[in-house]
Write a structure and sequence with these properties.
Number of domains: 2
Order of helices and strands: HHHHHHHHHEEHHHHH
Strand content: under 5%
Oligomer: single chain
Helix content: 55-70%
Largest sheet: 2 strands, antiparallel
CATH architecture of the largest domain: Up-down Bundle
Radius of gyration: 29 Å
CATH topology of the largest domain: Rhomboid-like fold
Shape: elongated
Length: 289
């Protein structure tokens, strides 16, 4: 058991693949919520786990609720409504994520997953609060958005945009180029925006749009994910060194520098000093003179 857990930890945290990390987070989140919810219902006839996870982890299009639960545009993309929901999402993520990482490396998967999920959340909230089809029936007060589908769709469409003629083999269908598979997904999602899962289909289209635009911008030399990552990187500390016109440092050395050099002499001898340290010691003796 410990070996199995160690293998899982290695694949998630040390393999370098963000794909394994994302799949691991989704599965762990699903099991934590649903196993505890099932135990609560079975042992105590209580739905408290399901109630609070739906209330605080899923994305509502109702703006007052969204403002108080401002973290849900991120948490919703790691939650799922059932076993088949997470199963198919993770399978598509695995299949297309492998191709994506093979051609673009392992550093962009997490960024695109998050951007796709956020784009899906944004389009979902905007449509449910502005389009007459939704506002006339107060659809924003309806069921919340749940699932990684928008994020997965972003990776699917990004991969198909990058490699439109890449061919995969589907069961019962045979070889299919990615561009036709991507087109099929988009058409199905578009036709579903007036159906029972309108919010989910709209979120899929938001993820698809960001996946397509990201690759087009990347092909033009603009890597949005790298640019965002660079914003959060710590800046190196700059050290300003002042030199005089002769190329040698001028002025009286600080006492701390002198003490450190004297300590080094006492431990390792004068010959262990660097050229710069000898120069500092020379200037100190001249100043004292």
């Amino acid at each position: 058991m410990s070996t199995l857990w160690q293998n899982i930890q290695y694949k998630m945290l040390h393999s370098g693949s963000k794909l394994n990390l994302l799949i691991g987070i989704n599965i762990i989140a699903f099991l934590l919520v649903n196993v505890t919810d099932t135990l609560g219902k079975f042992l105590f006839n209580s739905d408290i786990i399901g109630f609070y996870s739906d209330k605080y982890l899923l994305l509502s299009a109702y703006l007052p609720k969204l403002l108080t639960n401002f973290w849900t545009p991120v948490t919703y993309m790691f939650m799922h409504a059932g076993v088949f929901h997470i199963l198919f999402n993770m399978l598509w993520l695995y299949w297309f994520g492998q191709i994506f990482e093979e051609y673009l490396g392992k550093k962009r998967t997490l960024g695109l997953y998050l951007m796709g999920g956020l784009a899906g959340a944004f389009l979902f909230v905007v449509c449910y609060n502005t389009l007459p089809y939704f506002t006339h029936s107060a659809a924003a007060l309806g069921p919340p958005l749940v699932g990684a589908s928008a994020s997965v769709t972003a990776i699917i469409i990004a991969t198909a945009t990058l490699l439109p003629d890449y061919t995969i083999s589907l069961i019962l269908i045979g070889p299919v180029k990615l561009k036709w598979l991507a087109l099929f997904f988009i058409v199905i999602d578009f036709l579903g925006i007036v159906g029972p899962n309108a919010g989910g289909e709209i979120a899929h289209l938001g993820g698809a749009l960001i996946g397509f635009v990201y690759i087009k911008q990347l092909q033009k030399g603009h890597d949005w994910i790298a640019a965002i990552a660079n914003v959060f990187k710590p800046r190196p500390k700059l050290k300003v060194v002042s030199k005089n016109s002769s190329g040698k440092s001028g002025g009286k050395p600080r006492q701390e520098e002198i003490d450190l050099i004297l300590d080094k002499i006492s431990q390792s001898g004068y010959d262990s000093l660097s050229k710069q340290e000898k120069e500092i010691l020379f200037r100190a003796s001249n100043n004292e003179g």
